[in-house]
Specification:
The complex is a heterotrimer of chains A (229), B (221) and C (241). Chain B contains nine helices and no strands. By secondary structure, chain B is mainly α. In chain C, helix 2 (53-78) crosses helix 5, helix 2 crosses helix 6 (196-240) and helix 3 (85-115) runs antiparallel to helix 4 (124-143). Residues 183-187 of chain C have low confidence and may be disordered. The chains are: A alpha/beta (229), B mainly alpha (221), C mainly alpha (241).
Chain lengths: 229, 221, 241
């Protein structure tokens, strides 16, 4: 059993304060949904959780281990789905999956990687397109490919998904739902930023808008101002 | 296979599917070097005398051209985040990118250099030194350019900025690379120059991954 | 260092220091210029043109000193995450570039009567200063190349540290290169045997330049901090609606 905890996190993008005084906690098998209006800091929080963006203030702990101390270990256990799909037009879906699955899981060799990639392709419904360049894929198919890299990545304990259902059809959302349930059943954690309701069982919700309203309290404002000026 | 090799193979595959990118740098090398006869005149002795310097300066500029896209292309489609989120670390990422870049751009420049030397009427006894010096010098140029590319990823006017950052850093390679060819042309031994170039390459191999990883970390934020 | 981490405290100390620093600088400039132009003898070879040295040499020293300070600020920013390092580096770079430019222009003006040419590539010292100027240009361009100011400052800090490692290599290369292409015949200040009557104004001017650097640094850092405070106030006003 692991846990993933953030305490009094603050984030500054450029000169704009995105969020401050944010706490979160996810346990093994847990799911956390981030909601909030555009600009409320959902994507920034995901990047902070991934260890890509250091928080301006506050700490993040994985099993009581400070994240800032062991960034590489955290990078190895985290799978991140940004709002961009990172699909190279010149590669085929099979090459794409084989590269990313093996890049994340060094124990896979060319053979086992290929089996794994074929499994993922079948799941995403991309088998007929497996050997065509990715430039022929539709936006929804690219999204499925991007999700498949994470859904079939066994090394990741933590999934960070930024608007995972964007461009997905109903069937795609259902497929994602199944893999998410499987990942959680294995003890994995998920944090997802979303506008659409995802209906994952026992998922907690963190509303960043509520937090932003709290920040506009005069007290918090004074404190922030001290730090900057 | 480790992350370095996987990334190298992927980048080479991508480059082979878009061979025009590497070809543009080689074309720039040839066309850029041909500007000098037009600017200076066709006097072949003068051309032969300045050939080593011209070859090195233009090769340096040509190696900078494609570097702008090195990390930018990955950052634009979101791949850079995922490349960073791996067990391999950023230094291995920087080295793999630089290695692929040298194979795709540096090596073709090396192969094209005798042709350019021929166009500039360089004496035949400088060819061996030219190839050896480029073989030791161009990887250093690419490594330094990789740091500059990582630093300027996401900047406005990234390409020009990259050149401004990399050119002063490249100066020692240019000085000793051109000097090696000059020495060979007058019949002096070139061993010492090649040793300095090899030393610069070793230093770059040790230091540029550290600087490049620090710069990439900033680009990821 | 950490006790200066609070910008308000830094400003208090800086404001208290500034008038004294300015007074000392003015005093040093006055006495330095008096010695440089009136109280020191002309050179037996170069005549009065040697007096350019009293501007040129301190400017070149300050160019190097400023770059070293940039590297220190870079370490403060990247390693210790000192909140003022960004402000100081951003403020110091253009001052250093200014000193470098003064060294180059006075070097060129000095070169005209001494060598009969405005620019002699054979002088390794001047050529190295030119490359240092290129480093400053890159540093400043990188600082201002990003929409996010902190990103620019930290990228420039990485570059400053790369430059510190690379500068000695460049210096060595240029020294070696100039001996290859031009026999070492044009050294202007003959060795270290400099007459004490020349050393006095030189050191006074160096002190004046250092004081001037510190005054400018404080003024620029103060302006930068005020600019940031203003931006925060504007943001808060916008949030309040």
């Amino acid at each position: 059993m692991s846990d993933f905890i953030g305490e009094s996190l603050a984030c500054l993008r450029g000169e704009r304060p995105v969020f401050a005084g944010l706490d979160f906690s996810v346990a093994s098998g847990g799911a956390l949904l981030l909601t909030g209006a555009n600009g409320s800091g959902k994507s920034s929080l995901l990047r902070v959780m991934a260890g890509l963006l250091p928080p301006t203030a506050g700490q993040i702990w994985w099993d009581r281990e400070d994240l800032a101390r062991e960034p590489d270990a955290h990078h190895a256990r985290t799978a991140y789905l940004g709002h961009l799909d990172a699909v190279k037009a010149a590669l085929t879906p099979r090459e794409d999956l084989m590269f990313w699955l093996r890049y994340r899981a060094p124990h896979l060799n060319a053979y086992s990687g290929r089996i794994r990639a074929d499994e993922a392709l079948a799941w995403a419904g991309l088998t007929p397109l497996a050997d065509l360049p990715c430039r022929v894929l539709s936006a929804g198919q690219r999204r499925r490919l991007a999700i498949a890299r994470i859904a079939f990545d066994e090394t990741a304990d933590l999934w960070l998904l930024d608007e995972p259902t964007t461009a997905l059809d109903a069937n795609g959302a259902l497929l994602l739902h199944d893999r998410v349930a499987l990942h959680r059943a294995r003890g994995g954690m998920i944090v997802a930023a979303t506008h659409q309701p995802l209906h994952w069982p026992d998922a907690q919700t963190l509303d960043l808008d509520v937090l932003a309203r709290r920040r506009s309290d005069a007290a918090t404002r004074g404190k922030y101002f001290d730090n900057v000026a | 296979m480790n992350g370095f090799a996987l990334l190298l193979v992927r980048d080479l595959r991508l480059a082979l599917r878009r061979p025009a990118d590497a070809a543009v740098a080689v074309a720039f090398f040839v066309v850029g070097a041909c500007l000098f006869p037009f600017g200076i005149g066709s006097e072949s002795q003068l051309l032969a005398r300045i050939a080593p310097g011209v070859l090195w300066a233009v090769a340096l500029l040509a190696s900078l051209l494609p570097l702008e896209r090195l990390f930018l292309a990955e950052a634009e489609d979101g791949a850079l985040d995922r490349l960073a989120l791996s067990p391999h670390g950023l230094m291995s990422l920087v080295l793999a990118k630089a290695c692929a870049q040298w194979l795709v751009v540096g090596l073709p420049l090396l192969i094209a250099s005798p042709l350019v030397a021929l166009l500039l009427n360089m004496d035949v006894n400088g060819y061996g030194a030219l190839l050896a010096a480029l073989l030791l010098g161009t990887p250093t140029l690419v490594l330094i350019g990789t740091v500059a590319a990582a630093l300027s990823t996401g900047a406005r006017r990234g390409g020009v900025l990259l050149a401004l950052l990399a050119l002063p850093l490249d100066l020692p390679v240019l000085i000793f690379g051109a000097a090696a060819v000059q020495a060979a042309l007058v019949g002096d031994p070139i061993g010492a120059y090649l040793q300095v170039l090899a030393g610069l390459l070793l230093g770059a191999l040790v230091l540029t991954p550290i600087a490049g990883a620090a710069a990439l970390k900033l680009a990821l934020e | 260092m950490q006790f200066l981490a609070n910008p308000a405290r830094f400003l208090r100390i800086a404001n208290a220091l500034l008038p004294w620093l300015a007074l000392i600088t003015i005093g040093l400039f006055a006495s330095g210029l008096y010695y440089a132009f009136l109280a020191s003898p002309p050179d037996y070879q170069q005549g009065d043109s040697v007096r350019i040295m009293y501007i040129h040499v301190p400017a070149a020293w300050m160019a190097l000193m400023s770059y070293a300070s940039l590297a220190v600020f870079a370490l403060m920013l990247l390693v210790w995450k000192h909140p003022l390092a960004d402000v100081l580096a951003r403020s110091a770079a253009p001052i250093g570039a200014g000193f470098t430019l003064i060294a180059l222009v006075t070097g060129s003006l000095w070169g005209r009567p001494t060598w009969g040419t405005w620019w002699a590539w054979g002088d390794a010292r001047l050529t190295s200063v030119l490359v240092l100027f290129f480093f400053y240009l890159g540093h400043m361009a990188l600082t201002h190349a990003f929409d996010d100011a902190t990103r620019g400052a930290r990228a420039a800090a990485v570059l400053a540290l790369v430059g510190v490692v690379n500068l000695p290599v460049v210096k060595f290369s240029v020294d070696w290169w100039s001996t290859l292409h031009q026999p070492a015949s044009i050294s202007r200040i003959g060795g270290s045997a400099i007459d004490p009557s020349m050393l006095t104004p030189l050191l006074l001017m160096a002190g004046a330049f250092l004081g001037y650097f510190l005054c400018l640094l404080i003024l620029r850092a103060r302006a930068e901090l005020a600019r940031r405070k203003l931006r925060v106030l504007q943001l808060l006003a916008a949030e309040r609606g």
